[in-house]
């Protein structure tokens, strides 16, 4: 947790993030990035090694935390899981519910702050909790998050985090117009330095400008912070992967791989990681 900020401060900034994601939702629904004008293809957001680590999901209770539009959540349902998605954005949950219905996927969506997930889900326990790809950066307190995850999992249950590598986050957003192709460290790699404030009218997708709430706040979390939060909460880390591929070309010099994802031709650096932990 950031030393100089109180829980009241964190709650205030998370409410700003909630309003920002409500405002982002119609932009994302209209974007080519998500491609929701066609039949959704949730598999495109998964690396092959994610399915290897997750294992058989048929008949399992799977919870997707911070699910936004629920595109990945649909993939779990299609693999036979009893899938639940949770997000703090009312607009996102409404959109996700509609997307799943259109796709014929049996998914339940719940609106709640991730820190309130245990109460919001009525004490329900899960075989698998999945989260990531731009989720942890919106959480100010990973110790509290890990404690919540521990309560949500059944004994022997698995947490799977697939998240943008903190090195990628420290490189900051894509270069501004007129900047060169060099990769520059713009933010801390390690956490504890307080939130990074953004005031942006455009998000990571294409589409129109965001209207209304344009402020958002992100927190940096190094790999050690993630691992220690989980082990302190009683979870055992079973596997940690680092990948040099992303599901979209963040930088113009990225090249497409055989997997259909994208990597930098050089330098070869981690852009994504997968962490499997069990209770």
TrEMBL record:
<dbReference type="Pfam" id="PF08242">
    <property type="entry name" value="Methyltransf_12"/>
</dbReference>
<feature type="domain" description="Methyltransferase type 12">
    <location>
        <begin position="63"/>
        <end position="159"/>
    </location>
</feature>
<protein>
    <recommendedName>
        <fullName>Methyltransferase type 12 domain-containing protein</fullName>
    </recommendedName>
</protein>
<dbReference type="InterPro" id="IPR029063">
    <property type="entry name" value="SAM-dependent_MTases_sf"/>
</dbReference>
<dbReference type="InterPro" id="IPR013217">
    <property type="entry name" value="Methyltransf_12"/>
</dbReference>
């Amino acid at each position: 947790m950031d030393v100089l900020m109180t829980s009241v401060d964190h709650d205030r900034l998370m409410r700003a993030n909630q309003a920002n994601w409500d405002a982002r939702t119609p932009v994302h629904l209209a974007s080519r990035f998500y491609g929701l004008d066609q039949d959704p293809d949730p598999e495109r957001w998964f690396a092959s090694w994610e399915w290897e680590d997750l294992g058989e999901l048929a008949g399992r209770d799977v919870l997707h935390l911070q699910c936004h539009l629920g595109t990945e959540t649909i993939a779990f349902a299609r693999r036979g899981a009893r899938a639940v998605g949770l997000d703090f954005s009312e607009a996102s949950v409404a959109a996700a519910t509609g997307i799943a219905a259109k796709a014929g996927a049996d998914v339940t969506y719940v609106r709640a702050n991730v820190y309130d997930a245990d109460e919001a889900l009525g004490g329900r326990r899960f075989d698998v909790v999945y989260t990531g790809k731009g989720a942890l950066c919106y959480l100010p307190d990973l110790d509290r998050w890990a404690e919540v995850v521990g309560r949500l999992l059944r004994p022997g249950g698995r947490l799977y985090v697939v998240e943008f590598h903190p090195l990628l986050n420290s490189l900051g957003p894509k270069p501004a117009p007129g900047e060169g192709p060099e990769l520059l460290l713009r933010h801390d790699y390690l956490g504890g330095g307080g939130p990074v404030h953004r005031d942006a009218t455009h998000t990571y997708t294409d589409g129109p400008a965001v209207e209304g709430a344009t402020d958002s706040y992100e927190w940096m979390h190094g790999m050690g912070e993630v691992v220690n939060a989980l082990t302190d909460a009683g979870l055992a880390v079973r596997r940690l992967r680092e990948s040099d591929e992303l599901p979209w070309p963040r930088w113009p010099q990225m090249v497409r791989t055989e997997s259909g994802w994208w990597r930098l031709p050089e330098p070869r650096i981690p852009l994504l990681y997968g962490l499997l932990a069990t209770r």
